[in-house]
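protien #1 (seq + structre)
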Amino acid sequence: MLLQFFKALAHESRLRLVGLIAAREHNVQELAAALALKEPTVSHHLAMLREAGLVRLRQDGNTHWYGLEQKTLSRLSRALLARDQLQAFATMKKPAAEEERAVQNYLNADGRLKSFPSGPKKRRPILAWLARHFEEGRTYSEAEVNATLETRHHDRETFRRELVGHRMLARKDGRYWRLPESDWKS
């Protein structure tokens, strides 16, 4: 999650968008005018910020309003400043290039899954990629798991069931948590 956060903010235009949205909600037209960018470019940057959970979308008729997602910022600041989280960076494993390519083959331009692979060999990298959207050591409600999965694909139930079945997430009494990668089913 932190890596996605830093990638989302690693662009001057996205930083400027966050700055504008931090003050108040804006629509794409206002943001494009304020930054002297084209609307499709602004929409692309907003999609990346939404994917990272930094920006929320509110529809009002045909107008889309973008606001800062304060809860995500608070959660990220706690995670970033925690000593154990900082130490965990030293042991982070980079996904294998082959696994990364497999995931990229199933993504749309907006970072959402086109489909769910039918074969187990192609399914596992997708599930591992999804599982990495959840922080180890944190417990999630089913609603939080659903919200995270819905940013990637509309079929949250299938992915939730598969993540539990592959021992990537554990579930008890409507609460979920990510299991260590060493426990994941191959």
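ok now protien #2
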Amino acid sequence: MGVESTRLLDLPRIIVPKRHIDDRGWFCETYHEKRWREAGITCRFVQDNQSSSKRAGTLRGLHFQVPPAAQAKLVSVVRGRILDVAVDVRRGSATFGKHVSIELTADSGLQIYVPVGFAHGFVTLEDDVVVMYKTSDYYSPSHDRGIRWDDPDIAFPWPFEGVNIIVSDKDSRLPLLKEFASPFAYDGCPLAPLTVSDRG
């Protein structure tokens, strides 16, 4: 697949890294700066994060960092399955508060790119899940923000009843979208259905 339109450069998209399969298993380049840039992901990643979740229904999100430490993310699953979510939080966006989502699994190897200006979260779909993601800026506690996972204005259809969601105390106390004064500018590109970038 060729380089995508410039109007899509700052929107979430799916990355499909190529796997080289033989009778031993497979090999995959999970990140290759030149090829990912050809797919329109031009940010520089500076930090790798990994999370382990013991139980299905563990929810992490909806998180982001504000400028000057805003982060784009490249998310993949090392073990298990998750439902990954990106929510538009760009001020003045025609799709403010709207979301896209995708199931990511270790078996499929799919990744999702979440640019600056989008809140990110995921819920585990089975026990014993490991998620890895790259970020374009370092973690900064003073710039760490989020929106509540069950915000009625976002109304994301999480695949578990609220009582079965495992969420941190910190995430359960995040503000609602209507209480958030967004510092993220809208670039004129409304949120669109996820597109796929094949990377060889």
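The helical segments are 33-38, 169-172.
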